[in-house]
Amino acid sequence: MPENQYELLISKAKKARNLAQARYSKFKVGAALLTDNNDIFTGCNVESSSYGLTICAERVALTKALSEGATSFLAIAIFAKDGYICPPCGACRQLLYDYAPDIDVILSDGSEHQIIKLKDLLPFAFDDSQIGK
Ligand code: THU
Description:
This protein is α+β, with helices and mostly antiparallel strands. Helix content is 30%, strand content 21%. It has a single domain (3-131), classed as Cytidine Deaminase, domain 2. The termini are far apart. Bound molecules: tetrahydrodeoxyuridine.
């Protein structure tokens, strides 16, 4: 993937973060998920007064994409705040793995980014091969 496409995804993640509903933690996160058609689906975290119902930015982006018919994904960018890299939580790693096991995860700290394969973030993953699909 060309570098300028990474930068575009990061800028979409940063913009999506502005809409985060993070009134309890005050920790805002944005994500942008790229499909193989070059569509980008964004998400922000949405918190609940019943804290455990909170949905992370990554899962919002993924469920938006799936519910709009997207099926194949290349990369997801995640941004939380300047100077800090926000690795996806375990639940997001699993759900992303279920639908997009081969994606690159782009972690931005606002100025620099690192790119890690989802497979390296979730080794020895549970998937549908264990349940016979
Ligand atoms: N959060 C995300 O949106 N993505 C992550 O990868 C880590 C955590 C959100 C959930 C919650 O709203 C806040 O950050 C603090 O945990």
